[in-house]
């Protein structure tokens, strides 16, 4: 759905306090506190997000009936701010991520996994916005992300599904190399 900048970035106002409060509660309830294990599970959640991002983009955004139509609008108008309302992200996060994580790993480590996934999601939101709307320094991480994402938009919709990383595109053989004149022009 088309959004305002405030609507698009409102997750940055909601998620960090939720993650912080849940993390503080998890540390408080963990006896004894295990920050090293918590950090490892957080990191696994962060890396796990990159796989989820890849699969969501490749499978749902390009093949699921309603989501693919919304995503096609993004491809047709990449400067429009199209995203998920913050309330829906929080609700999905609680139902699909946090609750199963708490059930599987307990509150403390489930919160660590959820915090990692939420952090990865926020990175994705930030990187995706920057690749479409910012002037980026040539050679920077965001510039390379823009080139990769521009290839997806302008070269082929069958590759470069990862926005924050190309890792899973390489693992699953969907990395697009080279560039088109149009994608290079849009990267500048």
Q: Are there runs of 5+ residues with pLDDT below 50, and where? A: 180-188
Report the total helices: 8
| H/E topology pattern | HHHHHHHH
Fraction in helix: over 70%
Q: Calculate Rg over CA atoms.
A: 18 Å
User: Count of DSSP E strands?
Assistant: 0
Shape: globular
- Sheet-strand content, in percent, reads under 5%
Mean pLDDT: 84
Q: Summarize the main sheet.
A: none
Structural class: mainly alpha
| Distance N to C terminus | 27 Å
Describe the structure.
The chain is 74% helix and 0% strand. The protein is built from eight helices and no strands. By secondary structure, the protein is mostly helical. Helix 2 (11-29) packs across helix 5 (86-133) and helix 3 crosses helix 4 (65-76). It starts with a helix and ends with a helix. It has helices spanning 5-9, 11-29, 35-63, 65-76, 86-133, 141-154, 167-171, 181-187.
């Amino acid at each position: 759905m088309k959004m305002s900048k405030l609507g698009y970035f409102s997750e940055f106002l909601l998620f960090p306090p939720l993650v912080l409060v849940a993390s503080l509660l998890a540390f408080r309830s963990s006896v004894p506190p295990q920050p090293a294990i918590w950090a490892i599970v957080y990191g696994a959640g962060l890396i796990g997000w990159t796989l989820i991002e890849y699969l969501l983009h490749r499978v749902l955004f390009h093949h699921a009936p309603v989501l693919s139509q919304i995503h096609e609008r993004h491809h047709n108008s990449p400067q429009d701010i199209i995203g998920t309302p913050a309330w829906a992200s929080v609700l999905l996060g609680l139902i699909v991520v946090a609750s199963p994580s708490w059930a599987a790993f307990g509150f403390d480590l489930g919160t660590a996994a959820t915090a990692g996934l939420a952090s990865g999601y926020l990175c994705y939101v930030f990187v995706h916005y920057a690749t479409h709307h910012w002037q980026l320094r040539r050679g920077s991480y965001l510039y390379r992300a823009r080139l990769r994402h521009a290839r997806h938009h302008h070269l082929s919709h069958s590759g470069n599904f990862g926005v924050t990383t190309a890792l899973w595109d390489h693992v699953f053989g969907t990395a697009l190399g080279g560039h088109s004149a149009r994608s290079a022009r849009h990267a500048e």
